Amino acid sequence: MNKQQKEQYLREYGQLKSQGKPFFPYAVAKDGAMAVLVMAIIITMSIVLGAELGPKADATTTTYTPRPEWYFFFLFELLRVIKPPALVPLATIGIPTICMILLFLLPFYDRNPERRPERRPIATTAGILTIAAMGFLTYLGASAGPPSEIDVPVPANVSAQGQMAVANFKAGQAVVAQSGCGGCHKFGENGNDGPGPELTEIGRRLPAAAIARTLVNPTAPMPSYQGLQKSNPKQFDEMVYFLSSLK
Amino acid sequence: MAKLKLPVPPVPPQLKPLPKRPGKVYGPQTPIEHAGEAAATAVGWIDERTSLSGGARWMMFRKVPKGTNWFYTLGSATMFSFLSQAVTGVFLAMYYVPSSTRAYESIRTINNDVFLGEFVHGMHKWGSSMMVILIFLHMGRTFFFGAYKYPRELNWVIGVALLILTMTMSFTGYLLPFDQRSYWASIVGVNINGTGPLVGPYLSDFLRAGPNFGATTLSRFYAIHMLLVPGAIAALMGFHLFLVARLGTTAPPWVRAKSSEQLREEKVSS
Q: What is the domain range of residue A231?
């Protein structure tokens, strides 16, 4: 905005303001009514939905679902949508950081003096697209399948090894399902496709030792299973066996 | 400097004070009447020493421009939900123990044993969602009405900082109940922070209070959640509000001021 546009705006605004009404009581009454409405909604939600508590946090456990608060779903889903591992840092912090910087600097690069939304087509379209994208990602996050359900057919090479191997495979599958691996990984028909890589044929790509190493020392944001390895090495070994026989 | 003229709030005629009658003595006479004036005297005593009434008048009797509608209540509603969070948070803090061994039990005590405990806990929990929704609605209004443009650029920047601080509040608050869901979601969240460029690893080390998610992590999240960030939010909100009053709230962009001719016609016809 140049000096003339600034002065024109201030003059116009001064007129609008002098033709307006005093903040008290007119705006205060509206604000007060809105505050009562907000309070009523919060109280109703508290009474209806309550504040239930899940099971106590346990660092050595295997049953959990890392689900963020719903308004972080769009950030979380960004991880799922962006697949190639090289781009994951971009999804986790790159895009949010860039969006934040763009948001901070908005008044400095949008120098169009026009304020009516229909006369700022680029800004209005960008705004609507951003809201639509966030809404879509939140919807994806909300409708993501339960990560604790995994049902993979027993591979032929496992059933060929006899009853013990099949039992071991089933036990490992249960541990993996409980651990919520499906929250980020896909196993055949089950689990979510991303942010983590698909594990349907992980045994073909990685040997058992490498899988165990990854579980103990994973790439972020995956949590480490070192706690499980120490507290319950049997379950940990079953998990590794199950994953390494997925071929 | 010219004395600032403030608009007088409109009062219906029947409530206007009667004009003074000659020959009558005004002011309190009996001790009871004096006692009735106590509040006014106290306010007057404070005002004589602080001159705060000028500021209050400046804040309350400033004019809001023509066309101000319900969209303009979203900002104050966000502030109100923050105040609700602060009050319910204080009551929760009276019972909460920020220790990784006892946090979960203390929340269970709040839910099951404390009078109205689950109700206040629920208000705090759902109030956070409310505040996030309201802050986004307020931001959307500001964006589509072009209200971030000259001369209110700085207020937009402060608003974005408030948005980030609000998201920090919900991130750090999510861990505090210390149940499975909050514990593992926080681990993943901190790990996500760690993948960030440059400051990422330092940020996640700072949040975890060390290389691993341990006993001190919870008290760190607690301190950030109830001391550091709320203080910053309150300070920035105060500045945000001061700038709103200083620069004035915007009018909807399609509202135009009446020309002096239109105003004259209205005066003649009425």
A: 156-244
